[in-house]
Design brief:
The protein is of the alpha/beta class. The chain has 15 helices and 9 strands.
Length: 390
């Protein structure tokens, strides 16, 4: 009885609604199977909108968001749904449902905007974390310097609203640390993925002690991906000793953890330390037992250092003089400042300095007698020294 009264009351609002629009209708026995009903704007009077799918148009209820089948897109079925499921709004006119549709559209737009702002804020947070990591700055730089700085700049130039949006970028100490860790993990996974796809790579490995007196084992890999690609691979801390067995165990643990094999190695480059090239327990020896086809090389930087120790007398004298000059300049802050001033004066004169000009420079400097002699010995040639002595 209630449904019939409601239906009577709502008939005045929808009496002019047209019937369903059908496409691809065919006359005959199977005509009902080929019907595809399309949405008509007048169906808004029943509280329904379209799902905006051209291939499978379906009515969507504005009250609770129910989605009906395409076959239900006829006035009688839409009206029955409204009267039986939502009798409290069945007497509303079309203007009411139009306002309801507009309100839902605005809410959806706001939600999309909030989601997009959250996505861009996350992206900005990662990019700032990357910048902090590249510059090797403390993780607190984001919240202590970068955040307040861009808040001031944006508020001054773009206004309060823009400042409120940009302040949503998370830059706390823990957030930056977590972002850097996530990027590091992602890069490592990508490198491992590339190595697995190429199945051949070379490793350059070295161990050294950092300023915190912790021994770090660092590895770089090289592989061919159209061009030669060099990537940082790992940095593992050696907890106690730094023997060849310890280095091999650390590298082998990394390979096992990431599903890599010693058969992927085509070359290993190390320095000449006994822990690396030892005949019986060196890292190279242990690696060759796993893969005898590995080609081993001695790092050319270390080879240059070894060559410098056995160079000829003339070159040795030049290197000794250069080391002596550097040590003299770096021994005291005053000497460093004096050298900078001398360099500036000599640069003005295009590096052509007469003995008298050099003497004037020395007189202006607060040198002791011994420091004056040392300075002239290093920076004055034999002719200039002889004139200065006279």
């Amino acid at each position: 009885m209630v449904a019939s009264s409601i239906g009577t009351a709502s008939e005045s609002n929808i009496e002019d609604v047209p019937g369903p629009s059908e496409s691809k209708c065919k006359k005959g026995k199977h005509a009902s199977l080929s019907k595809k009903r399309t949405y008509v704007d007048a169906y808004l009077a029943y509280g329904f909108t379209s799902n905006n799918d051209e291939d499978n148009p379906r009515p969507v209820c504005l009250v609770y968001g129910d989605t009906l089948s395409n076959g239900a897109m006829v006035p009688s079925k839409l009206k029955r749904h409204l009267n039986t499921r939502h009798p409290f709004v069945s007497q509303r006119d079309m203007a009411y449902f139009s306002r309801l549709l507009k309100g839902q559209s605005k809410a959806a737009t706001k939600m999309v905007k909030k989601v997009s702002v959250a996505d861009t804020a996350l992206k900005a947070s990662f990019r700032v974390a990357e910048l902090i990591a590249k510059k090797m700055k403390p993780h607190t730089t984001g919240e202590e310097i970068i955040g307040p700085a861009y808040n001031i700049i944006v508020e001054t130039m773009l206004g309060k609203e823009a400042q409120e949006q940009i302040s949503k970028v998370p830059l706390s100490n823990n957030t930056i640390s977590r972002r850097i860790s996530e990027m590091s993990t992602d890069i490592n996974e990508e490198v491992v993925k590339q190595i697995k796809s190429k199945r051949k790579f070379a490793l350059q490995v070295d161990e050294s002690t950092d300023i915190a007196e912790k021994c770090q084992l660092v590895g770089f890999c090289k592989f061919i991906d159209k061009d030669i690609v060099e990537q940082f691979m790992f940095c593992e801390e050696l907890q106690t000793t730094t023997t060849g067995e310890d280095i091999f165990a650390s590298v082998n643990s990394y390979l096992t953890q990431h599903g890599l094999s010693w058969n992927y190695f085509c070359g290993i480059c190390t320095d000449g330390a006994p822990s690396m090239i030892g005949k019986y327990k060196g890292f190279i020896t242990r690696a060759l037992k796993e893969n005898p086809s590995i080609i081993t090389t001695h790092c050319f930087l270390h080879r240059e250092a070894l060559v410098a120790k056995t160079c000829g007398e003339e070159l040795t004298e030049v290197l000794n003089q250069a080391v002596k000059m550097v040590n003299f300049i770096k021994s005291r802050p005053l000497k460093k400042r004096v050298f900078q001033k001398v360099y500036q004066e000599m640069e003005k004169l295009d590096w052509i300095v007469s003995p008298f000009e050099l003497a004037d420079m020395v007189e202006e400097l607060d040198f002791t007698a011994i420091e004056r002699d040392e300075f002239l010995d290093m920076f004055a040639d034999s002719t200039q020294s002889q004139i200065l002595e006279e």
